[in-house]
Amino acid sequence: MKEQVKKVVVIGGGITGLTTTYYLQKIINEQKLPMEVILLEATHKLGGKIQTHYQDGFVIEKGPDSFLERKTSAAELATDVGLGNKLVHNTAGKAYVLVKDQLHPMPTGAVMGIPTKIGPFLSTGLFSVQGKIRAMSDFVLPRSQSGGDQSLGHFFRRRLGDEVVENLVEPLLSGIYAGDIDQLSLMSTFPQFYRVEREHRSLIWGMKKTTPTQNRLNSKTQGKFLTLTGGLQTLVDAVEERIAPSSIIKGTKVEGIDHKGDGSYNLVLSNGENLQADSVVVALPHMALAELFPNTPYFQDIKEMQATSVATVAMAFDANDVEVTLDGTGFVVSRNSDYTITACTWTHKKWPHTTPDGKVLLRCYVGRASDEAVVDLSDVEIEKIVLDDLKVTMNIKAKPLFTVVTRWKNAMPQYTVGHKQRVEKMHQDVRMNLPGVFVTGSSFGGLGLPDCIDQGKQAVNDVLEYLKIDVSR
User: Fold this and answer.
1) Domain boundary among 395, 413, 431
2) Is residue 298 domain-shared with residue 391, that is, in the same domain?
3) How close are the terminal C-alpha atoms of the chain, in Å?
4) Pairing mode, strands 307-318 and 402-413
5) Start and end of every Amine oxidase domain (predicted)?
6) 196 and 244 assigned to the same domain
């Protein structure tokens, strides 16, 4: 008797859904499993926020531009699809913090804003004498009494004081999430800091002991981030090329999911067709859950999660028209400074392969929690605002050769206090009430490329376990 073929449908063609589909199909083909997988993407392009713009020899990332080397899954995926020889490290160099109207070098030894070398911290102009003394109280303060979640701001203000938080910790940590450090969840963003405090009491001493030197810089010239020489879009393209074309359906939206009496699911598609599935992986932003499951209470807390709109602004110049005299790769902006940009990367220095000889490429970021209105301005208005901010830190003699503005509306989910508990409850409710449905992606378990890829791999394991498919042979 022929074994029944199980059908798995992945909804969402961002990097999480793409990873799920790729690795699941890889296992199916290698072990000749009685399964098939279909990837549904509402737009006509895979990759989500991973988009690379190519113009006049420039390689410009419109979304993420790199990933941490120590989180290995992204480099492993690139190698698996034949791009291992295209991986490249960023050029190591000083990073700066813009406070008021001055760029200050980030203190040597600072790990995500936490000082691990006292000398550079005491000599920096980033903080007043009082601010430095307050930060040093970390050595004598007791551990936090809170055993539950708390905001990043509350945690770091208690240990290091307001000044260090505002001028160093906040620009680095909240910039990753485009969020408010006083709302973001410690346990859902940087739980390692909580563990360090529990184990060592002093955050400064604990970070000094637990941060390997190689995690700070691999060498004097090589940084800790990786990207691909052809842009991250080449990763999306390479993964897509290795998935059977018949397994990818673009331009088709899932409008509803019905749980049938036999345990399977019926997916109602925007093209009028229905698709049956034995298991469903939902790799979509949290806002989309409301449309897929309008009458289910399990997603109520998740659907109310806030998301921030941001924009990236890439500007190309002739090298003669811009003076970037500092040795480094860019800067972040203190919350205490009156600027619209939140950070600027001197991309031609950090990623030399992206920029033709004799040219300069600057990549700036605007938009964050409670300051999103700028994202809705016109390209011309955004360009002017960004140029005005940049002229405080460098001499710009001419307009850009061209500017690429990319808006990401509601693109940055906010992991506020209690996020981990809300997500765990959602997963538990889904397991009980919608067996075989797995919800995953950047809204839930991490924003970075490796985090999303890890979630895609976990979804593969979840599906195989649910369908009782033995892959140990």
Assistant:
1) 413
2) no
3) 21
4) antiparallel
5) 15-464
6) no
Tell me the residue ranges of DSSP E strands in 79-195. Answer: 87-91, 95-99, 102-105
- Give the global pTM: 0.94
168 shares its domain with 314: no
Length of the chain: 473
Does 374 lie in the same domain as 343?
Answer: yes
**What CATH number does residue 178 fall under?**
1.10.3110.10
CA angle 440, 306, 176 (to 5 degrees): 75
Which helix (H) or strand (E) segment is 389 a member of?
A: helix 379-390
Contact 268, 256 (CB under 8 A): yes
Q: Flag whether 114 is in a domain.
A: no
Residue 40's domain spans which residues?
Answer: 6-46+233-305+415-466
- Residue carrying the six token digits 């981990």: 420
Cβ-contact 22, 10 below 8 angstroms: no
pLDDT digits (tens, 9 = 90+) for 201-227: 999 999 999 887 644 444 455 678 999
Shared-domain flag, residues 252 and 393:
no
CB atoms within 10 A of CB 329: 22
Give the pLDDT confidence of 180-202 residue by residue, as tens digits.
999 999 999 999 999 999 999 99
Residues 229 and 353: their CA atoms lie apart, in Å, by 7
Q: What is the mean pLDDT of residues 80-106?
A: 93
CA 320 – CA 326 distance, rounded (Å): 15
Q: Whole-angstrom Cα distance, residue 208 to residue 212? A: 8
How far apart CA 163 and CA 10 sit, in angstroms, is 46
DSSP at 467: T
Same-domain check for residues 133 and 148: yes
pLDDT of residue 472: 66
Q: How many domains are contained in the chain?
A: 3
| Cβ-contact 39, 248 below 8 angstroms | yes
- Give the orientation angle of helix 15-31 with respect to helix 233-241, to 10 degrees: 30
DSSP reduced 3-state for 361: strand
Q: Give the pair of three-digit tokens for residue 236.
A: 């999306």
Structure tokens at 172: 């680095």
Return the beta strands (E) in 21-136 as ranges: 35-41, 52-55, 58-61, 67-68, 87-91, 95-99, 102-105
Are 457 and 399 part of one and the same domain? no
Q: What is the CATH number of the domain that holds 324?
A: 3.90.660.20
- DSSP letters, 99-121, are ETTEEEEPPTT-BTTB-S-HHHH
* Alpha-carbon span 222 to 59, nearest angstrom: 20
pLDDT of amino acid 1: 41
Which of 183, 214, 245 terminates a domain? The answer is 214
Give how far Cα 209 sits from Cα of 92, 117, 128, 161, 196, Å. 23, 11, 26, 21, 9
Tell me the pairing of strands 6-11 and 279-282: parallel
